[in-house]
Design brief:
The structure holds three protein chains of three kinds. By secondary structure, chain A is an all-alpha fold. Helices cover 73% and strands 0% of the residues of chain A. The two termini of chain A are 36 Å apart. By secondary structure, chain C is an all-alpha fold. Chain C has a domain at 266-430 and 447-472 and 507-537. In chain C, 71% of the residues lie in helices and 1% in strands. In chain C, α2 (26-49) runs antiparallel to α3. Chain C is globular. Chain C starts with a helix and ends with a helix. The model of chain C is unreliable at 435-439 (pLDDT under 50). The chains are: A mainly alpha, B mainly alpha, C mainly alpha. Chains in contact: A-B, A-C, B-C. Chains B and C meet through α1, α2 and α3 of B and α5, α6, α9 and α22 of C.
């Protein structure tokens, strides 16, 4: 451990020196003058009818990044499920266990009541964020994460049984595949229309309305579905693992 | 000088995260240290894209031509966040399994491979 | 026209398989996965055959020289790496058909997304997009590495892999951010125009940070520690892609960035030094192993060093040699990993000493393994042989690097041939508890069973391809390499829509010289293998001095490879500092 710290200490000093030498040539914060951002701020509304420039960058001008990003999330969910999956010899042990032995709901009425109140608000908020991604702050990623908290609230307030009922793993898995494939397939629409991959080929609508900005809104929807179901699947993988352990 | 503070802070976070990983005796702690290292990239991206006195690049209720900060770094950051969240989830899943199979969360006691 | 498909097709197939995989009949799922990989290979091959193209996603062309969208800037080097990746994924998919006792559609999904990541990484012309596809590739690779999550070995390997690579990736991202603040651009060619001639300490520090993540992926000393842990523990079909394409992708990124973006001659010395160290460390560690997959993993490190030496001279000759070497090495190394996988499947072990003489049951695997060993040592005819010759030619002025490259070829070839002699011919005495075997044997994925065709056909196919690769058009590779290093000509094609003429290829080394060199390395590799196997019969006066040098050397190097993630990250910090300091303070 001591040798490791000496090694790290020398490295850290060198890193700091290199960083200092580089960063002192940076302009101080606040004096940004890059061309890229200026151009995008100027063209996003007239060209794409998207008043949220960040969404226009994510889902149109740099839409390929987001395709990759979505699949990073997607493959991580698959990988987590693969890592935590039941294995050969464990399956036989688990066979005769019914899911009814899962964690019961909490006794507190206050927690349950709070959950009941929270769920509809969260659902509406999440859907609003996804559908207005091209207009106001938010979008598929943010809204999807908000939506994914709904089953989590249900898990905390009503127990694992209800959780698995409202968010069955098969549905989450299907939704995730659909959302992820949807992004790539919307990208193909451009090719089908004789243009480039991920080209905006859907009518653009009026700036500032929810159904504007063409594919930006559609892509937001697919990302919302993929992120929402993806996080649910992620949570399910851990919850199932936890329950398996608790029962042992 | 003050204008360069965010960049110095970013280096501080990088080194602090690396130090945490180097000395960590617990995999969960180690994964969080990796997340600390990663927050430095948020800081530096946002600091670089910030323009004094500018608003957020959302033109829903402001006239075209209003000076806004760089939207690109914000889009990059969103990607960055997703990368971080997923890598953390992946590593936590591995940590859960390592605890189950190896009986310990201490990386020093995971020593099937060496030499 | 073809540009988006190497990314889009495997992704759609992967999403489809993951969503419906367990509802589909196993054969249909297998067919979809293999079909998608095969069509991807075909698309990439067509891109390779064509001229360099620039494809703007969303049809967002640059405006008055400013890139706004993301482009794929496809040249022969990138397309070639994509072809190699898809062929290796194809072989991995075939090999995994009977490799797991249970249906493994999740494994196939991970492989397909890995493929999309590799293809996007090789083709993209945008710096941040490069990072995104780097992470796509990494996330899939972490999952593949930890796939056998019942054993401690793969989990430890995956932790080391994921933590070091992710730390490296975030350091790369911070470097990208620094460059963005200077250039206000993310397109490689656009950035090049903004920094050309202004290589102050900011650009140099950023270059060091950006290269770090890719050098970690390429397992260059001192970032190499994770590789053996990850490769030794991952399922064999994943290993072939890790060793054959992923490590090389890291090196490709360094070459691509140097060529299209940085154009910094200052990079030559640190990269060459790192390449030499990597060759030597890999060679010694490879020769000291008895766990076959770990042995092959360290040989990959040594060969990564060779490839880096070729890139580091920053001249078309060395770079085209490196490109050819990558193709030949990827195919040969993948075949060797598949042979190790077959041994594990049939004989339930991959410990060289435990398998002493037991390989006689499967002589054909021995033939493939021996052939792989000879080709690895540099025997013609493969692209690796020509690449090796070109790298030597380019290193004319750097005798130390030439020596290191030769040592890497001899030691790795000798290690494989030694294992081959011991396992398949039963040469040498039995050494049940030879010292230095710190690693555990691997748990097999299946019950012992005869080797099915789906395992030996891919291995034989890869070796046949490796031999066929000797007839790749070398002038084409040469002019592509010259083009890759010409940032100005790239920028005019990407930003000004010009179609610059292809440069003429660099002069080649005379064939006779290459053949003589190959005869030397192969001969020495065979001799070294035999001497090691029969060392007990040598007189003590010869053995004594060798032992006095070898034991402390190998012992101390092995002691550094502790397998502890903390150590690996400490080395990583030191490596970034050394690379940065050598650029900024020189």
């Amino acid at each position: 451990m001591k040798a490791r710290l000496v090694l790290f200490g020398i490295g850290a000093l060198g890193f700091a020196a290199v960083w200092f030498a580089g960063a002192r040539k940076l302009d101080p914060m606040g004096s940004y003058h890059g061309a890229y951002g200026e151009i995008l701020n100027a063209v996003s509304v007239p060209e794409r009818h998207s008043t949220n420039v960040v969404s226009a960058v994510n889902f149109d001008y740099r839409g390929l990044d987001t395709l990759g990003e979505e699949f990073i999330l997607y493959i991580s969910v698959v990988a987590v499920a693969a890592i935590l999956r039941k294995q050969k010899d464990e399956e036989e042990e688990d066979e005769d266990e019914a899911p009814t032995q899962l964690r019961e709901a909490p006794d507190s009425d206050a927690v349950r009541l709070f959950g009941v109140g929270l769920v509809p608000v969260t659902v509406i908020f999440g859907l609003y964020m996804i559908s207005h991604g091209s207009v106001s702050p938010g979008g598929g990623f943010q809204g999807g994460v908000v939506l994914a908290t709904v089953p989590l609230v249900v898990y905390l307030c009503a127990g694992a049984k209800t959780y698995l009922r409202i968010a069955p793993p098969a549905l989450a898995k299907g939704g995730e595949g659909l959302g992820a494939a949807g992004y790539a397939l919307i990208g193909c629409l451009g090719v089908l229309a004789g243009k480039k991959f991920l080209e905006n080929v859907v009518p653009l609508g009026t700036p500032g309305e929810a159904w504007s900005a063409g594919t930006i809104t559609l892509l937001n929807l697919t990302v919302g579905v993929a992120v929402g179901t993806g996080f649910v699947e992620l949570i399910s993988s851990f919850v199932e693992e936890l329950l398996r352990k608790a029962e042992k | 000088m003050l204008g360069h503070l965010p960049y110095a802070l970013a280096a501080w976070l990088i080194l602090w995260g690396l130090y945490g990983i180097v000395t960590s005796r617990n995999l969960i702690h180690l994964v969080i240290c990796l997340a600390v290292l990663q927050t430095s990239t948020y800081l530096i991206l946002l600091a670089i894209g910030y323009k004094a006195g500018a608003v957020a690049p959302i033109y829903a209720d402001m006239p075209a031509g209003t000076v806004a900060v760089d939207p690109v770094v914000q889009a990059l950051m969103l990607t960055d966040i997703v990368v971080e969240a997923t890598v953390v989830a992946l590593l936590l899943a591995i940590a859960v399994q390592a605890h189950e199979r190896g009986g310990s969360l201490d990386p020093a006691r995971l020593c099937a491979l060496k030499g | 026209m073809l540009a988006p498909w190497p990314v889009a097709l495997p992704l759609v197939a992967a999403a489809f398989l993951a969503g419906l995989g367990d509802k589909l009949p196993r054969r249909l799922a297998d067919a979809i996965a293999i079909g998608a990989a095969a069509i991807t290979a075909l698309c990439c091959a067509l891109l390779l055959a064509g001229p360099p193209v620039v494809y703007w996603f969303g049809g967002i062309q640059p405006r008055s020289g400013t890139a706004i969208g993301i482009d794929f800037a496809i040249d022969a080097n990138g397309a070639g790496l994509a072809v190699l990746s898809s062929l290796l994924i194809l072989a991995a998919l075939f090999f995994s058909l009977k490799y797991f006792d249970k249906p493994a559609h999740m494994f196939q999904v991970l492989l397909l997304v890995f493929l999309a990541g590799l293809c996007g990484f090789s083709l993209t012309g945008d710096l941040f997009d490069l990072f995104v596809f780097f992470e796509v590739m990494s996330a899939a690779a972490f999952g593949l590495c930890a796939y056998k999550s019942r054993e401690v070995g793969p989990l430890q390997g995956a932790i080391n892999f994921a933590v070091t690579n992710t730390a490296g990736a975030f350091i790369t991202l911070s470097g990208i951010a620094l460059l963005y603040s200077r250039t206000g651009a993310l397109n490689l060619s656009h950035m090049h125009r903004m920094i050309a001639g202004h290589d102050d300490s900011l650009v140099l520090a950023a270059a060091a940070l950006v290269c770090t993540g890719f050098l970690v992926k390429a397992a260059i000393v001192p970032f190499q520690f994770w590789l053996a842990d990850a490769h030794a523990a991952a399922p064999t079909p994943a290993c072939i892609v890790f060793s054959g394409a992923m490590v090389e992708a890291g090196l490709y990124a360094v070459a691509r960035l140097q060529g299209a973006l940085f154009g910094l001659p200052q990079l030559r010395t640190p990269l060459l030094a790192a390449g030499v160290a990597t060759c030597l460390v890999g060679a010694v560690m490879c020769f000291a192993q008895r766990h076959l997959k770990r042995l092959l993993a360290f040989s990959t490190i040594a060969h990564a060093g060779v490839i880096l030496c070729g890139i580091a001279v920053l001249e078309p000759g060395g770079l085209s040699g490196a490109g050819l070497y990558v193709v030949g090495h990827g195919l040969v190394k993948a075949a060797l990993f598949l042979c190790a996988g077959m041994l594990l499947h049939r004989l339930q072990s991959i410990d060289e000493l435990a398998l002493h003489g037991r390989g006689r049951e499967v002589p054909w695997v021995g033939v493939l393994f021996a052939l792989g060993g000879l080709l690895l040592a540099g025997a013609p005819p493969t692209a690796m042989f020509f690449g090796d010759g070109a790298i030597h030619h380019a290193l004319e002025a750097h005798p130390i690097a030439r020596f290191a490259v030769t040592v890497a070829s001899i030691a790795t070839g000798a290690a494989v041939l030694r294992a081959c002699g011991r396992i398949f011919l039963g040469l040498g005495p039995r050494e049940p508890d030879a010292p230095g075997g710190g690693e555990q044997d691997e748990e097999p994925e299946t019950e012992a069973a005869p080797i099915p065709w789906s395992m030996w056909v891919p291995a034989a196919f890869l070796l046949a391809l490796a031999i066929g690769s000797a007839w790749l058009p070398r002038e084409h590779a040469g002019s592509a390499a010259a083009r890759m290093l010409d940032a100005h000509s790239w920028a005019t094609q990407v930003l000004d829509r010009a179609q610059p003429a292809m440069p003429s290829p660099p002069p080649e080394e005379p064939l006779a010289k290459g053949l003589a060199h190959a005869a030397l390395t192969v001969g020495l590799a065979i001799a070294l293998a035999l001497l090691t196997l029969f060392r007990k019969r040598l007189p003590e006066i010869l053995r004594g001095p060798v032992r006095a040098v070898w034991n402390p050397l190998a012992g101390s190097l092995r002691a550094l490879h502790t397998g502890a993630v903390g150590d690996q990250v400490a080395w990583l910090t030191l490596g970034v500092a050394a690379l940065g300091a050598s650029l900024v303070f020189s």
